[in-house]
Amino acid sequence: MRKLFKFLTPYGGAMLAILCVLIVQAYCDLSLPTYTSDIVNTGIQQKGIDEKVPYEISEEDFEHLLLFVPAKEQETVKNAYQESQGVYEYDGAVMEIKEAVRNDGEKLEELSEILGKPMLLCAGFDSGNESAAEIEERMKEQLEEQLRDQLDVYDMFGMMEDAQREAVISEIGTQFSGMPETMAEQSAAVYIENVYKNLGIDIDRKEIHYILKTGGKMLALAALGMLASILVGLLASRVGAHVGRGLRKDVFRKVVGFSNGEFDKFSTASLITRSTNDIQQIQLLTVMILRMVLYAPIMAAGGIFKVLRTNVDMLWIIALAVLMIVLVVAVLFTIVMPKFRVVQDMVDRLNLVSREILTGLPVIRAFSTEEYEEQRFDRANRDLTRINLFVNRAMTFMMPVMMLIMNGVAVLIVWVGGHSINEGTMQVGDMMAFIQYTMQIIMSFLMICMISVMLPRAAVSAERVDEILMSDTLIHDPKEPVSLDKTENGAVVFDHVSFRYPGAEEDVLKDISFAAKPGQTTAFIGSTGSGKSTLVNLIPRFYDVTEGRIMINGTDIRDITQHELRDRLGYVPQKGILFSGDIASNILYGNPAGSEEEMREAAGIAQAAEFVEEKKEKYHSPIAQGGTNVSGGQKQRLSIARAIAKQPSVYIFDDSFSALDYKTDVKLRNALKEKTKESTVLIVAQRISTILHAEQIIVLDDGRIAGKGTHRELLKNCEEYYQIAKSQLSEKELEIDMKEAG
To answer: Which helix (H) or strand (E) holds 550?
Structure first.
């Protein structure tokens, strides 16, 4: 996880912007259940009456209400109202709340606390509530019989002294003290509804207006939430794409700078997997983190805050649901997590087998081993399929269990909430809001848990990518590089050089010393495995020497930058490598600014001009990937032309003439001799005919120099060279050469 966030560090500003937008989205999503609750509770059940006190009231109802207000607070109530100048269907005087009180939240709240119980009592007496009717009956028993039918409860309260009336109100208030708050609110709304009806106010219109207004707010919030969600998706996708692009660039740049030692450590198939599949996993999880992981805690915290304000009694249901989800995910996490690294290793294996089969297809067909290779691929494919099926089945099992938990929680909320509604401790809208908040909280934890299951695979991918980025490259540029002497043309000196491959127990090259001078050809010959290619690969610093030093123009190659060193070299590997494009782009690959004349000259020296000119598009003829549309000899000649076109100080030919026929070989070497008369030429060869006229031939045997000199000198003085010559030259040729050698 730490490595994943390390990759996200450069995008801190974008992540902060995403976090801000997510907060807006969460606010919108968390507000919708509240408005749903308001529509049900206030809009439908309370007929759209959201006032805590009546804003307009008839003078008669106002006087009745004051009867239940304590004497010390009556003045506050009277000062809050004034006679209305509005037009009502009611014939008598109408009182309306003052504008200053209506707009002052504190004064309105104070008035609500004073009138709360009086409105409850009035609503009870007006509706014939059982408790209110019992109180009214007891009060009538104290009157004379002829007055009982003439006076109502308000008349009786009006006849009482203030002290007596307050005592009765206090006694009645005690009876209503156990009433739930929700029922008290509904009773107050019922009272205000009756007051408005007495004035002729259209309650149905008020109800529709409230529902439409609240619904409009919901639509506006939903639209804002949708825009926030779209913006988050866009920003998250851009960040994820940039993370993927940056990682691919960094990995590619790192791999390009690898020495052969790093390529020995990381297989080509593994490097491809890490550059594609692993980075894709990181990119996918980056988007998921920014869209879900950051959003889920905000939603969970906001949902819990809203639930605490809605109904604390059912909080245990959420705790139970979250606990069950965590347990399910913990079990899956324990089972699935170890398999994710295996999956990536299997992908590596499948890529390796696929690459080997596709690369070696001609050999496979030649030896009729298609069935064996198909079985080998099938084994790798089946292994990957089996492990993927296991992981996917485990993941698939999670969703039905989560849905079962969510639906079970919804049923449990309805069951518990139904009892609360029946007891009057909860309203229907509150229960609906609680269900929505609970689902939001559970979904938040579910998102976190799902990401936590995906996280191990991405974490493995991050480790694999980071392993490349953090790998210590064996070949380094010096901290204070020096420049090569450009007045000289590339004298190469090996000074007691020894080399062993990283991790090997024995040296491949042992105490190699020689000097290759400009204008001369130095050739290397020896049996297979004697170290010829390894020796010339030390010059471009594909590996660094273990002991001794290699110098060009008197400067240790480790003291100059790799770029400057390789800029002075023209290297032709054993296996000719061409790149997709055309013939011209391949010849001028090392000298992009080269002219067409230089390109044609290089092709002519390399004996490639003849077959190029025969092509329809000549030098613009396409080259397929890997040069598969040209023969081995043509590929080798184009590789040689590429080195010649660069016009380097040092030419390195690593057995680069092996695919050429004898006639072409002779013509090429003669043309090359003229072109390289001021450069140093190093040739690795298996055929003595290729190096007969070299000024210096070095014979390698088991990593050591067995002989050094010209062809004739070595025939006379070096047994190893003589045996090689004997196996390749005719007896007549060998006899002539021996006579000339003296």
So the answer is: strand 547-552
DSSP assignments along 506-531, one per residue:
S-SEEEEEEEE-TT-EEEEEESTTSS
Which residues are CB-neighbours of 122 under 8 A, at least 6 positions away? 61, 64, 65, 68, 191
In 3-state terms the chain splits into helix, strand, coil percentages (rounded to 5) of 65, 10, 25
Query: And the tokens for 708?
Result: 């050094």
33 by Cβ neighbours in 10 Å (0-12 / 13-18 / 19+) ranks as buried
Dump pLDDT digits (tens) for 492-532.
899 999 998 877 788 888 988 989 888 888 989 888 888 88
Tokens of 161: 């002294």
C-alpha span between 619 and 611 (Å, rounded): 10
As beta bridge partners, residue 697 has 523, 709
| Burial bucket for residue 106 (CB in 10 Å: 0-12, 13-18, 19+) | exposed
pTM of the complete model: 0.65
Q: Is the dihedral of CA 553, 590, 265, 376 positive or negative?
A: negative
The CB-based long-range contact list for 14-21 (8 Å cut-off, 24+ gap) reads 14/235, 14/238, 14/239, 15/239, 15/290, 15/294, 17/235, 18/232, 18/235, 18/236, 18/239, 18/290, 18/294, 19/294, 21/228, 21/231, 21/232, 21/235
Q: What is the pLDDT of residues 327-361, one digit of tens each?
A: 877 777 777 767 766 776 787 788 788 878 877 77
Distance CA 409, CA 4 (A): 35
C-alpha–C-alpha distance, residues 39 and 33, integer Å: 10
